[in-house]
Amino acid sequence: MYFLVHFCIKILKKSKKILIIIQRSNGDVFFSTSLVRALYNYYQSPQIDLLINEDTSLIGETIPFINHIYKFSYIEKKNNRWRQEKNIFFKIFRKYDLSINLTASDRSVIYALISGNKTISAVEVDNKKSWWKKALLTHFYYFNKDKHILLNNLDALGVLNINHLPIQQPPDINNQVITRMRRKLSNIGISNFIIFHPSAQYVYKIYPQHLRNKLLELLVTLNIPIIITGGNSQLDFEIKLTIPDSSDIINLIGETSLEELYALSELSSAYIGMDTMNMHIAASQNKRIFAIFGPTILKMWSPWSNELKKNATENMPVQTYGNITIFQDSLPCVACGNAGCDDKHGKSECLFNINPSVIFKEIKDWYQSIHV
């Protein structure tokens, strides 16, 4: 058995065409960056392609060393499922020396099996769901819901015996974008600032308007510019209209590209806001983080501390580890992991119970400590 495993790993070391499959959310795609970098360095500049969901393609396009991106569309699946499946099948069939699937769904495992001569995939712990996957894959590892998504993704490197550190690499940012953003800020008299990110992909992750505005009212007393960031979704624009007017609040929701958001985060002193991808970006840049959490499970999705090489694993109203502070409600159901209390993307009661004064106290103490 030892010689068989050793032989398989020896073959895998020759991989020059690699497909990585990630059929989940923006965060999952972003957290593949460290895996991609490690593979690129270990295999000495191989061709690395991605197969991801269409709504995560903007994130996928910012990951370095990616040659091509295949996009799976749920809209196209609804209109004509088999046409899309057939097209993807013919595009990836036996095109790769190695395929790595980071999500355990049946579809993504099948994509891995048809595309790679050698295959690695996450699989469910439940043997009723995963037995056929374990039988057909070259190698597999268990997707662990009690482990951070970064560590889950890096498990594929362990299968390949590739040495790595549990570090989340920050996004690559073009120096010209950094210079352009710094110039824009300088033109309006801003050098030092904090980011406040009030939005998220889903309503159930958003801090209520009246509490959000109270927090902003308190933050203004620090006399530091607060840049409000956000995307171009309908939800973002609805929030944009509710942000209070103040000379210290610069509302840039919907006014920056993704790379400009990366640059703003890199130039900022701290991130304040919701449990969202922007939070993970700021954490990867080692920024001071003040994150407001609702029902999201911390073990998998709390901000990763590169300094401590760890994340939060226990629920509590306020906790700090390294440069990261997390706020939660103390309800016994926190954190439930549901999409809102109704589990249908509705209201999350726990977010209504987080006192903005508690959040502000932690931010104020930090800010005053660095300006003594």
Quick structural gist:
This protein is of the alpha/beta class and 372 residues long. 40% of the residues lie in helices and 18% in strands. α3 (33-42) packs parallel to α8 (149-159), α9 (175-187) crosses α12 and α10 (209-220) runs parallel beside α15 (356-369).
Layout: helices, strands, pairs:
Elements: H1 2-12, E1 17-22, H2 26-30, H3 33-42, E2 47-53, H4 57-60, E3 66-72, H5 74-92, E4 96-101, H6 106-115, E5 116-123, H7 127-136, E6 139-142, H8 149-159, H9 175-187, E7 194-197, H10 209-220, E8 226-228, H11 234-240, E9 249-251, H12 258-267, E10 270-274, H13 277-284, E11 288-292, H14 298-301, E12 318-321, E13 324-327, H15 356-369
Helix pairs in contact: 3-8, 9-12, 10-15
CATH superfamily of the largest domain: Glycogen Phosphorylase B
Report the end-to-end length measured between terminal Cα atoms.
62 Å
Question: Uncertain spans, ≥5 residues at pLDDT below 50?
Answer: none
Named at the architecture level, the CATH assignment of the largest domain is 3-Layer(aba) Sandwich
Q: Could you report the average pLDDT, rounded to the nearest whole number? A: 94
Helix content: 25-40%
Strand arrangement, largest sheet? 9-8-7-10-11-13-12
Number of helices: 15
Structural domains: how many: 2
Q: What is the makeup of the main sheet?
A: 7 strands, mixed
Class from secondary-structure proportions: alpha/beta
| Morphology call | globular
User: What is the name of the CATH class of the largest domain?
Assistant: Alpha Beta
Rounded to an integer in angstroms, the radius of gyration calculated over CA atoms is 22 Å
Helix and strand run:
HEHHEHEHEHEHEHHEHEHEHEHEHEEH
